[in-house]
Amino acid sequence: MENGIASQGEGRDPSGFLSEIIGSSVTVKLNSGVVYKGELQSVDGYMNIALEKTEEHVNGVKKRSYGDAFVRGNNVMYISAD
Amino acid sequence: MASQLLPLELIDKCVGSKIWVVMKGEKGMLHLLEAIMSVQLTQTLCTEFSGTLMGFDDYVNMVLEDVTEFDYSGNHTKLSKILLNGNNICMARLRLSSECNH
């Protein structure tokens, strides 16, 4: 089957994109609308995310910052490369 | 008999094209607002994404480029490249050329 596999390549399919953005600064939006911005340390198959130098934004306003933060994957709406 | 097109094959045909993605609505908020305002708000409470589909996987997680996010409060957000979690995707379709002026 050619699903996804045909389009594999640098940063094109989900796993390629993730390996491309590891270590760079990202924006993670949760289903609740809360946004976390930080350096992407790692992601796994559940979209569990470890962030460094994390800022928490609620309704566009910066609320808190964390050195290290873990986000459980089921809450993630998207991961955006900044 | 026409050959059958599987759902994921349909999405595979959209790779490289501009698509619209509609997310599931926020049920809790929806019911609350519907109760207060006694109106049907389903249409306005879904987040939507428009962008070029670069790839996807078996869970229909999608990599999108040149994305505009439309949230239910009417805000537009531009994003260069995102991985969209397939868990909350409700519907996706090709964008018509007449809609590509955002």
**Reported CATH architecture of chain B:** Roll
Return Rg of chain B in Å.
15 Å
Task: Name the helix and strand elements of chain A from N-terminus to C-terminus, one letter apiece.
Answer: HEEEEE
Q: Could you name the ranges of chain A where pLDDT drops below 50 across 5 or more consecutive residues?
A: 1-7
- Described by the principal axes of the CA atoms, the overall outline of chain B is globular
CATH topology of chain A: SH3 type barrels
- Which two chains form the greatest contact, residue counts included? A-B, 27 and 28 residues
Helical/strand content category of chain A:
mainly beta
Order of helices and strands of chain B: HEHEEEE
Strand order of the largest sheet of chain B: 4-3-2-1-5
If you compute it from the alpha carbons, what radius of gyration of chain A comes out, rounded to the nearest whole angstrom?
Answer: 13 Å
What this model shows, in words?
- The complex is a heterodimer of chains A (82) and B (102).
- Chain A is mainly beta.
- Chain A has a single domain (14-81), classed as Roll (SH3 type barrels), CATH 2.30.30.
- Chain A contains one helix and five strands; from the N terminus they run αβββββ.
- Chain A has one helix at 14-21, and strands at residues 25-30, 35-43, 49-58, 61-71, 76-81.
- Chain A is globular.
- Chain A starts with 13 loop residues before the first helix and ends with a strand.
- Residues 1-7 of chain A have low confidence and may be disordered.
- Chain B has 102 residues and is α+β, with helices and mostly antiparallel strands.
- Chain B has a single domain (7-94), classed as SH3 type barrels, CATH 2.30.30.100.
- Chain B is built from two helices and five strands, in the order H-E-H-E-E-E-E.
- In chain B, a hairpin with a 5-residue loop joins strand 2 and strand 3 (62-70).
- Classes of the chains: A mainly beta (82), B alpha+beta (102).
- Strand 5 of chain A pairs antiparallel with strand 4 of chain B.
